[in-house]
Write a structure and sequence with these properties.
Elements lengths: L4 E6 L3 H10 L5 E7 L9 E2 L2 E5 L2 H4 L5 E4 L9 H9 L9 E2 L4 E2 L4 E2 L4 E2 L4 E2 L4 E2 L4 E2 L4 E2 L4 E2 L4 E2 L4 E2 L4 E2 L4 E2 L4 E2 L4 E2 L4 E2 L4 E2 L7 E4 L4 E5 L8
Parallel strand pairs: 1-2, 1-5, 2-4, 6-9, 7-10, 8-11, 9-12, 10-13, 11-14, 12-15, 13-16, 14-17, 15-18, 16-19, 17-20, 18-21, 19-22, 21-23
Antiparallel strand pairs: 3-4, 23-24
Bound molecules: coenzyme A.
The site of coenzyme A has 12 residues, from β23.
């Protein structure tokens, strides 16, 4: 029986709920509940898992590890902002890999990252910190996925691809070998990416073409 660690999942939306379900298949983690900033949700049960409250719930469980599971195609940078606001050391973060995913011995995954079911990392792939990888993603030799990137379900990366920090790859996108996706860019679902995507742009289609810039984010006061 492996050692068990307490786990908190920050965010009780779609990705957080998926991660909570995945954690039920990982005997090394004991899920305490969700952390969620909406005070009206505290005490609620989501898929049978309690919402414990806002960030104070992390202070109340100093031995628990944390994963920040927020991020939608339109959530530009929100996961990074939460991690920066929490200010926790990397050792407080869990790295969660569903048991049906396959991570080659030469591949690496950073703290706070989540890899959902059936994903494969073939050889010498590097996945940074706080990266979200949905089910059925294929990451092949020498790919680099930088911190805070999100890869939606069914994406396939050719070899030597670089996905910049905070970039979002939409469901089912295909990336030719060696392409570079600029930091903060968004690739639409089903895109076939044949060329490098500059930072901060939305590309979509087959072959993928520039659609629009990523909107400038509004800072809350
Ligand atoms: C690319 C994307 C961000 C564009 O969203 P948007 O800016 O709101 O764009 P719109 O829906 O207004 O569409 C703008 C144009 O782009 C086209 N378009 C939108 N998404 C497209 C896509 N994925 N592939 C090809 N064309 C697309 C639309 O048909 C439209 O074309 P038109 O102007 O000729 O009518 C979005 O469609 C997308 O693919 N998001 C990723 C979704 C995803 O993978 N979610 C994962 C679930 S967890």
């Amino acid at each position: 029986m492996p050692d068990t660690h307490d786990l908190l999942i920050y965010g009780a939306g779609g990705f957080g709920r998926e991660t909570a379900q995945a954690a039920t298949a990982m005997p090394e983690w004991r899920l305490l509940g969700f952390v969620d900033d909406d005070p009206d949700r505290a005490g609620a049960l989501v898929d049978g898992v309690p919402i414990l409250g806002g960030a104070k719930a992390i202070e109340a469980a100093p031995d628990a590890r944390v994963v920040v599971c927020v991020g939608s195609p339109t959530g530009y940078g929100v996961r990074r902002r939460i991690v920066e606001r929490l200010g926790l050391p990397p050792s407080r973060y869990a790295t969660l890999v569903h048991p049906s995913a396959w991570v080659s011995p030469s591949s690496r995954i950073g703290p706070g990252s989540v890899v959902l079911a059936q994903t494969v990392l073939t050889a010498s792939a590097r996945v940074g910190a706080h990266v979200a990888i949905m089910p059925h993603v294929t990451i092949t030799h020498d790919d680099v996925v930088e911190d805070y990137a999100t890869i939606a379900s069914g994406v396939r990366l050719g070899g030597g691809v670089r996905v910049g920090a905070g970039a979002y790859l939409g469901a089912g996108a295909l990336l030719r070998e060696g392409v570079v996706i600029g930091p903060g860019s968004l690739v639409g679902m089903g895109a076939v990416v044949l060329r490098d995507v500059p930072p901060g742009e939305v590309w979509a289609g087959s072959p993928a073409r520039h659609l629009r810039p990523v909107p400038h984010r509004k800072e809350s006061p």
